[in-house]
Amino acid sequence: MGTVFAIFLVFVGCCSNVVSLELLVREFPGCGNIVTFAQFVFIALEGFIFETNFGRKKPAIPISNYVIMVTMFFTVSVINNYALNFNIAMPLHMIFRSGSLIANMILGIIILKKRYSASKYLSIALVSAGIFICTIMSAKQVNVANDGSEEQGFYTFMHWLMGIAMLTFALLMSARMGIFQEMLYKTYGKHSKEALFYNHCLPLPGFLLFSTDIYKHCVLFSQSTPVVVPVVGVTMPIMWLYLLINIITQYVCIRGVFILTTECASLTVTLVVTLRKFLSLIFSILYFQNPFTTWHWVGTAVVFLGTLLYTEVWSSVRTALRGPVVKDKKAE
């Protein structure tokens, strides 16, 4: 039951979060730092009140282990959002991060000495291939006009390449963090709420490095068009409203992910998160009325096939169909 609820939180929260993030990025492409900071403050405050009881509850997992996890988590979060400043299109950004399936499996084999069945390898390959197809098709639809000199064109390409390098580094770091969490839970038990709090509270001083950029975007957000918030009737700048929605949906999403890490293996968590990213892409394309080509449908079908293969649906169906036959034979 806990696993189903966690998956529900991941899909609903994260899909809504992607829409609000795209609304923010379309208006201010460099707003990654203020978005990350706001998310961390909200989740840390909630955890400080409800999880640690205003700091009176001692952590079950040693702080030294949380420092290692927090360093990885903070690095991944900041780099992923900061990469949007390097001419990375939102669809490409979402799907590139979904390559964590392969990264997680490779690091699992190297670090944890895990071995997987052939069907697991095939399912991961299918899911990754389907996502890759959708990425390429979505990236081709983003046309960036370069009317400048050849030197400016080269600079733009290198700028974009740096963003890709940042996403690659964050991808590997994220996979390593997932494995580290899995090892911690095996040693000290499962404490998802505690991990969620410390992962967002301990990195807060690190945002001092981005204080100038965060303040600049606070000013820009305050200057955006004012809107009336439904139901409440309060008037506020629309960018602050988008940020508020983003914060709440991010909390719902990440809460689901942390619950999932206590219920499932690292690779299974990665698969759920990857499918969420894929559905977020499809939803984003439909919501923002971006073209959805035949190749997008091909990618969708491949991802769906890979998911069925990974979850061994076919085996479950065959077992269910053979069940009555076995019983009949036993009855005879």
Automatic annotation (TrEMBL):
Main location: membrane
Cellular location(s): Endomembrane system
Gene Ontology cellular component list: endoplasmic reticulum membrane; Golgi membrane
Superkingdom in the source lineage: Eukaryota
Classification via InterPro entries: SCL35B1-4/HUT1
Signal peptide range: 1-20
Pfam family, one: UAA
Keyword tRNA-binding found: no
UniProt entry keywords in alphabetical sequence: Membrane, Signal, Sugar transport, Transmembrane, Transmembrane helix, Transport
Bilayer disposition of the protein: Multi-pass membrane protein
Membership in a protein family: Belongs to the nucleotide-sugar transporter family. SLC35B subfamily.
Name the UniProt record assigns to this protein: Solute carrier family 35 member B4
Record organism: Seriola lalandi dorsalis
